[in-house]
Structure formats: structure tokens, C-alpha cells
Design brief:
Blueprint lengths: L2 H8 L9 H9 L5 H5 L3 H5 L6 H13 L13
Length: 78
């Protein structure tokens, strides 16, 4: 994996400029870093309280812009 993708995974979620409901949903799940979210599957995220289909779509689009997707298993990003 490129160093750019690893750096993206180490960034705080707040840098994604998420909509407030999306940010609250992920923070409620205890996530603070992009990589923590990327490691989870769509099903795992859907099980979190306050799940919203629009929030999931927003998240996936922003991750795709960074070259990331849900369910990635990447060693050494932390």
C-alpha cells in the first residue's frame, strides 16, 4: 500500500469534513481516525446506533476520494 494511503488512514475523522449526523454516528461508535473506520465492514457500521443510509453513502464517497474503502485490512498503518 502506498505511503499516501497509509497517511490518509492515520488522519483524524474530523479532517473529512463530514456532515454533523455522520460525524456523530461515527464518534458514537468510538472512531477517531479514518483507518479505524476503514477497517470495519459496511455491516459492522450499520449495526452502530444512529445508523443512517445517507451517512453511510457520504462516508463511502469521501473514503473513495482518498482511495480507501470499507473492510480494508492494512497492516502497519497505526
Amino acid at each position: 500500500m502506498s505511503e499516501g494511503l497509509l497517511e490518509a488512514m492515520r488522519r483524524p475523522l474530523s479532517e473529512l469534513e463530514l456532515a454533523v449526523p455522520t460525524q456523530r454516528w461515527l464518534e458514537g461508535g468510538g472512531f477517531t481516525l479514518i483507518g479505524e473506520v476503514v477497517e470495519r465492514t459496511e455491516a459492522e457500521l450499520m449495526a452502530l446506533p444512529h445508523y443512517d443510509r445517507r451517512s453511510l453513502r457520504e462516508l463511502k464517497e469521501l473514503l473513495a476520494d482518498l482511495g480507501l474503502q470499507l473492510g480494508m485490512k492494512v497492516e502497519g498503518w497505526r
